């Protein structure tokens, strides 16, 4: 979420230009900040990758039936931010198909400024309430037994062929698996890959110098291609 007292950063995804323009203007008039607008899923993903976004408003049928729902699942998996579906249809079938992606609300076209404001307020309140109660863990398997790790406690992960070393607040843990498998479990908004053998939690990076990141006192190498990734991460923070 944006810092205290700063405007809420909102992504708007809508493929009808007039509706997109109307919605963006209304958000600006209410004091929100449009972090980006998009008319396709690809454009929306680009905005999410480079901008800090607090909430997204997604047209359910953007450039294809239920494409917005596909984007909703993507946001849940990689960013964990609240989103509201925008739709001209309030029929049970449409709502039912959207429910599995766990949206934080719906905005039915045509909409009024008051309805926009109300849907955003409800979504943010629901998100903040769930964030207080939901523990942010991932589950990993070690020698046939599952254990859980708090995501925010992970500093970085290093790969060694068919094993990975997970470095956390509680120390190191070596488990059988691949870096790709770990990467798929962690939010891409926070974790990035500066080198083919390392996955780093951006929250624990203290410096970058001479081709190395300092991550909670440890030196993590940055490859030539990883340098661009590091710069993109730093530009978002």
TrEMBL record:
It comes from the Bacteria. Keywords: Phosphoprotein. Pfam families: LytTR, Response_reg. Residues 9-124 form the Response regulatory domain. Gene3D superfamilies: 3.40.50.2300, LytTr DNA-binding domain (2.40.50.1020). The modification 4-aspartylphosphate is found at residue 59. InterPro entries: CheY-like_superfamily, LytR-like, LytTR_DNA-bd_dom, Sig_transdc_resp-reg_receiver. SMART domains: LytTR, REC. GO terms for molecular function: DNA binding; phosphorelay response regulator activity. Residues 138-236 form the HTH LytTR-type domain. This is Response regulator transcription factor. It comes from Neolewinella aurantiaca.
């Amino acid at each position: 979420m944006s810092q205290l007292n700063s405007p809420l950063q909102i992504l708007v995804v809508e493929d009808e230009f007039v509706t997109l323009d109307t919605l963006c203007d209304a958000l600006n008039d209410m004091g929100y900040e449009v972090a980006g607008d998009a008319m396709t899923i690809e454009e929306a993903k680009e905005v999410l990758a480079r901008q800090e976004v607090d909430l997204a408003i997604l047209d359910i049928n953007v450039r294809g039936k239920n494409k917005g729902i596909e984007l909703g699942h993507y946001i849940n998996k990689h960013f964990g931010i609240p989103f509201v579906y925008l739709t001209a249809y309030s029929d049970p079938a449409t709502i039912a198909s959207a429910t599995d992606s766990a949206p934080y609300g719906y905005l039915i076209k045509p909409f009024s400024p008051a309805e926009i404001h109300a849907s955003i307020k409800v979504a943010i309140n629901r998100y903040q309430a769930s964030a207080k109660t939901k523990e942010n863990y991932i589950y990993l398997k070690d020698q046939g037994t599952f254990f859980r790790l708090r995501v925010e406690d992970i500093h970085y992960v290093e790969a060694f062929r068919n094993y990975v070393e997970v470095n956390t607040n509680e120390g190191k843990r070596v488990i059988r698996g691949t870096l790709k498998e770990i990467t798929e479990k962690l939010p891409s908004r926070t974790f990035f890959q500066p080198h083919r053998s390392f996955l780093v939690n951006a929250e624990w990076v203290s410096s970058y110098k001479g081709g190395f990141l300092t991550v909670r006192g440890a030196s993590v190498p940055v490859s030539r291609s990883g340098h661009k990734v590091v710069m993109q991460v730093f530009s978002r923070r």
